[in-house]
Design a protein that fits this description.
The protein has a domain at about 1-45. About 30% of the residues lie in helices and about 0% in strands. The longest helix is centred in the first third of the chain and has 9 residues, at about 20-25. It is mainly alpha-helical and about 80 residues long. It has three helices and no strands. The relative contact order is 0.06.
Length: about 80
């Protein structure tokens, strides 16, 4: 399998995984980073998103004002 060849030939003939390759893949979890585990996926979205409060409860924005650079606007025809 390290050479990406299975002697049954199904992998190369039909371009989909044969049972031998699937069995081998089940054993290679030691080579896969923990980032790709179901547990890591769930942790990434666990309590990460909190609903916004009602608009009446929003505080006024006091940060810097951001404006677009009008010299970079395209003033051409559409499609």
């Amino acid at each position: 399998m390290n050479d990406r060849i299975c002697t049954c030939g199904k992998w190369h003939t039909f371009h989909h995984l044969c049972s031998h390759v699937l069995a081998w893949c089940a054993e290679i979890t030691q080579f896969v980073n923990d980032y790709y585990t179901v547990q890591s996926y769930r942790l990434a979205y666990d309590n990460s998103f909190r609903p916004l409060p009602d608009k009446l409860e929003w505080t006024d924005y006091t940060g810097p004002k951001v404006e677009a650079d009008s010299s970079r606007w395209k003033l051409g025809h559409g499609r």
